[in-house]
Amino acid sequence: MALDRWVAFVILCAALAYGYAAFFTMDALLPPFMQRNPIWPSTFPKVLAVLTIATSLIILLGLEKSVASDKEPDIDYRRLGDYHLGKALTLLGLMVAYALLLRPAGFLFATFAFLCCGSFTLGERKFHILLPVAAVASFIVWYLVDEVLGIFLRPWPFFI
């Protein structure tokens, strides 16, 4: 089986577990006054689970491929070294570091550092554009989440 189908199978298994949690366990803990609402906190997870299951089944069954396609697969798992595996693993490491530094370093600094380091990893070298864009994007996201939506995000490090 091709690599894309293995990945689709793993995503399908995760989506089935996520869908089970969304459909059968999340709604049991709702207070009575919320059970009459048309949209519950589990509505988005339910939609996300159904769409993910449908998409992974389409890939797993090969419905997205054309009938006349006899060429080799797009990703050859025997030649993973030919791909930019280092960049992908570096980005995954940056995502983990971002998640771990989000509270102690504050949202603004952690997001700014992640955007800068991630862009640098992917090859961006125009720092006169990169730094202001990362700073403005970090501030806009913080402002929208904190001020507009009213969800508190600690903007600065814990010692300030």
Percent strand? under 5%
Shape: flat
Beta-strand segment tally: 0
Main pleated-sheet profile: none
Describe the structure.
This protein has helices spanning 3-25, 43-61, 85-105, 107-121, 127-148. With 160 residues, it is mainly α. It has two domains: 3-66; 83-148, no CATH class. The radius of gyration is 21 Å and the shape is flat. It starts with a helix and ends in a 12-residue tail after the last helix. Residues 7-153 form the DUF1468 domain. Keywords: Membrane, Transmembrane, Transmembrane helix.
List keywords for this structure.
5 helices; transmembrane helix; 160 residues; 2 domains; mainly alpha
What can be said about this structure in brief?
This is Tripartite tricarboxylate transporter TctB family protein. The chain has 160 residues and is mainly α. The chain has helices at 3-25, 43-61, 85-105, 107-121, 127-148.
Topology:
Layout: H1 3-25, H2 43-61, H3 85-105, H4 107-121, H5 127-148
Helix pairs in contact: 1-2, 3-4, 4-5
